[in-house]
Structure formats: structure tokens, C-alpha cells
TrEMBL record:
Protein name listed in UniProt: HD domain-containing protein
InterPro entries per the UniProt record, alphabetical: HD/PDEase_dom, HD_domain
CDD domains: HDc (cd00077)
Species of the source: Dyadobacter psychrophilus
All copies of domain HD/PDEase, residue ranges: 29-144
Amino acid sequence: METEMNYQSWLDQIEAFVSAQLSPYAERLAYHNLNHTRSVVTNATRIAAHYQLSDADRFVVLSASWFHDLGYINGDPSGHEQRGALIFKEFANPLLIEDNLIAGVIGCILATTLPQKAVNLLESIVCDADLYHFGTTEFTQKDALMLEETQHRLKTDIPLINWLNGSLRLLQSHQFCTQHCHHELASQKQANIRELEARIEADL
């Protein structure tokens, strides 16, 4: 019970820390903001419940979900996973979190690097939690936020047809890592692909 309380205490501290870190960047990060991070944590919680994870494994998955995009606050998209992992390690060490848990969280964060390379169930859950919207009706809205963030970062307008073609290639090349998400989300992902194809055709 004491260990279980430690996990929840650590998660509460993690939520407070990440929320405080991301809040000032709401304007610059239209997509990779606190709302996205919270949704990934929610998705990860849902998938973890399906797989009936132990308290330790659930802690690893949720911690990685909180930190997976925190590297966006101090650099470009490239390498943000490594920076997020480093921020987590610096945060975790004073809390005396066990080394094997820290290693598990870092592995899950790094696995979300595109193209995703999950090698175990925990990494697979975090990867699917991150890109969960690929298989939901929220995809179009979230893709538009990603476009907004990218244009803000590059300080230039991106032709919509170019963006839609890139989004289509991304969806077509993506595979959900867990059987659960493949079963639950693959159908809507195919619908999102068809919608992208229709928008591209209409714009030509």
C-alpha cells in the first residue's frame, strides 16, 4: 500500500510540474500543449486499464505520457523526445524513484519518436496514446492545430494541399502498436484517410 501511495504521490507531483512547465507556452504551441498532454494521459489511462497493468507499470506509462512532449518547451521538434526524457530524469532523481522505473519511463518517451519503435507493451501503450486521435473523429481538428503550430514555428504559410498530402502519408504509414487500439481505432483511421483523400482531390 505504501508503494502504491508513492506512485500516486509521484504522479500528482508530475502533473503539477508538467502543467506549470507547459502553461506559458499555450500561444506558441497550438498542438503540443497542456491540452494534448492531458489527452494523451487520458488515453494512456484507458489503454492501461484494458491491459490491467500493475501499479508500477501504470506509473511508468502515465509518467511517460506526461513528459513525452515536454521537450517542445526548449527546442525544435527534432530531438524533443530526448530532451523530454532528460527533463524527466532530472525531475525523478531527487524523488528517489527506482532506476528501473526511470529507465522504463525514458524508454516509453523515446519510443514515441516517429516512426514509432515500441519494443514492449508499455512503450506500445504510450505510442498509441500519443497518436490515439489518428483513429478518432477529432483527427481533422487536431491536424489543423498541428498545421497552425508548424506555421507559427516556421513563420510562413504552408499550402494546404502540401499539408494534407503530408498528413495522408503519415496516416497511411502508421500502424497502431497495441491490438486493442488496432481493434478499436483502425476503422475510424481508414475513414480519416478517405476524408483526407477527398479533401486533396477537391483541392486539385
